[in-house]
Amino acid sequence: MVNDTLENSIVRDLITADTAVALLRPLAEGLALFAEFDAISRIRSKAISPVLQSLFQFFVDPQRGADLFQRLPGEVAIAAAISEVLYDLRTNPATLSRKASLLLQPFSLHAGGYLPGYLAVKSLWRAASRKHFLLANETDSFLMYLRSYIYDDWGFVATLLSQELDEIRSAEAIVNYLKHRISQWEDLAEQDFSEYENSVAANRGSRPSPLPGLRVADSAAKSGKERLHRLTTELVASSKADKSMTTAIAWWSASILQRRQFMNLASVPVELCEKADGFPEVQWQRGSIFTPTRSDFMVDPKDSLGGAQLEVIFEMREDRFERAAVVHRDAKVLVCAPFGLKKHADVTRESILRAFLRRPLVVEAEKAMHVLVDHIAGENWFRISIDHCKSQVDSLVDEFFKDISLRFARDYDAVDNCAASMSQKGFQPILNRSSLVKGLALLGLATSLNPDESFVEKIFEKHALSLSQTLNQLNIAYESRGYPPRVLQVQNTLFTTV
Amino acid sequence: MNTDKHLQIIGLTEIELLELEEECVNLTIQRSSAEGPQQTQHGDLGLTAAVAIVTAAAVQGLAVWLAKRRVEDIKLSRVLFEKLPDGTVRMNATQLERGKLTECPDPQVVSALTAQLSDLLQLGTKS
Question: A229-267 burial, b if ≥16 CB within 10 A, otherwise e?
């Protein structure tokens, strides 16, 4: 039996976490989709995002890269190489199918929030472009700025860690904070974007905190830092107390407060098979994937034979990216094979092995935390209380996204009507035909590469679609439904919000 | 006697499902939560699954839809279909060509696919 204060604080924490996830998940998905379908760095950008940096490092053909660097100045060569990779990606039929399918997702937060999140990011991009016209084309700079505006905001940290005891007020404070933050977006000036970009360009691999240009009040930043410091200190102290599960959970909680250094790109079951000549090879679905070298084996190669798990790990270290294939059996690492430059291999291996040593403890702590939360939340009065709060939070979050995502609809009626009609099948009820959904998707993909009308027209021809017909039908849809926003045509340049 | 047969389709994107609905008006298509590549928990948009109610009258439309997506090689088309132990016929759309569509598919390919689907679904060819 838990006491009243503890019960209340558990409900408050659960609701706070749920509210933050409900708001941030669609935005995170929206940012990721914008990176996939829209972001591009051009020669006028002073800095490029880690997304495009890693794209350049891992996806540019080395031969092609060398050729471009021979002919062009460094920054121009990087921009050209990235553009070539993005051209191949965004004019690919599979990408068109993926984006068109995104536009058919429900406009609802209960389906992953992909469509509301993507449309919210695109609306914010359009609003930012009106303030700082360069962002209309420098979409990667916009992406970096928006990510920082939300995720590097100490004021938001202060709100999330506020001492408010009432769960509903705590949830409202989070929604209201983000609402206020987004309404401030309107006041941003060209100088904010420039200050931010200059700071990112000048501090590659390290981050001044708070970053300039994000419009975070000093008092809010101070409060956020203090609250996070207090929580971290408390968790670190608990994690050193003894060896119980409470300790492990405290350690796990402290670790998730830190920026993630590793990403797991793939995880599949594999087999290490003996080879007549040389070391065992790693097989997946009975096909050979790679043969590790001697220095990649963390155990005697003979002891590695049999079933295991392969994970492809992506590490962001300072301003560099590293990748490695790790084959492990339960907690035991059998093979750690870094890709990339040989001179970095030892440091990468060391850093990954250190993380793997802590892994069983992290996994156990995470499981224990879930069991504990499910157990508490399963108690009747908790469930009722949580469900009641959640329904109120859901409607607040729904309103939040409706206002941002459909901001460029013709008027309030169009916002309400479109939100309702798009709730199940996205744009389908508005655009009706699959060809128009594809046309709208392609318009965004093509203009992200080059907004010149004749370029866009050629991309449409490549996909057996008509640009003029698409623009015409989109105009008809806008006239009758008030959404999607009109495609702006200035001289020979096209600008679309979807 | 009800001769409608159910065809389970996995690995379709949302836009392909819409195209299928538009092009095969005789098919009744229901989204399903059947096994297959589904929206994952890891934040990917994923693919969708559906069940199509196929009648003898609709089978040719479905064959045309498939042939347009370059199922020209009948050997390849055999990998598209699978008869499950419970008798359900499953089509794996992940193997379809997602590039340019063939607007006028080869009539021989269409009739071969129609025959193959009718056979698998045990449909009479007369509607």
Answer: eebeeebeebbeeeeeeebbbbbbbbeeeeeeebeeeee
Q: How far is CA A348 from CA A261, A315, A335, A337, A344, in A?
A: 12, 8, 13, 9, 6
Phi, psi of A60 (to 5 degrees): -85, 130
Q: What is the DSSP letter of A452?
A: B
Residues of chain A found within 8 Å of residue B43, distances taken between Cβ atoms? 28-29, 32, 112
The C-alpha atoms of residue A86 and residue A55 are separated, in whole angstroms, by: 9
% residues pLDDT > 90 (chain A)? 56
Q: Which residue from B minimizes the CA distance to A428?
A: B18
A93:B98 CB<8 A: yes
pTM of the entire structure?
0.88
Q: Answer yes or no: do B15 and A437 touch at CB < 8 A.
A: yes
- Best interface-test mutation with A: which of B12, B13, B14, B24 has the largest number of A CBs within 10 A? B14
DSSP state of B22: H
**A464 to chain B, closest Cα gap in Å:** 8
pLDDT band of residue B4 (cuts 50, 70, 90) is low
Per the CB < 8 Å rule, is B45 touching A98?
yes
- Quote the ipTM score: 0.82
Cα–Cα distance for residue pair A284/A289, rounded to 1 Å: 6
Q: Each residue of A454-475: pLDDT tens digit?
A: 999 999 999 999 999 999 999 9
